[in-house]
Fold this protein.
Amino acid sequence: RGKTKISLERLKMEKVESGSLVLENEQRQRYEKCLDEISNQVVQAQ
């Protein structure tokens, strides 16, 4: 029974880590899209 509890705790932690990785990835994609838009505007302004 002790092993099961440890496995569940580990699974929960992995789920949390996975969720935060997904969030980080989404934020990075938004940031890169924003940079692309800014650089496009700079190019158009020249």
Notes: Residues 1-46 form one domain. The first helix runs from residue 2 to 45.
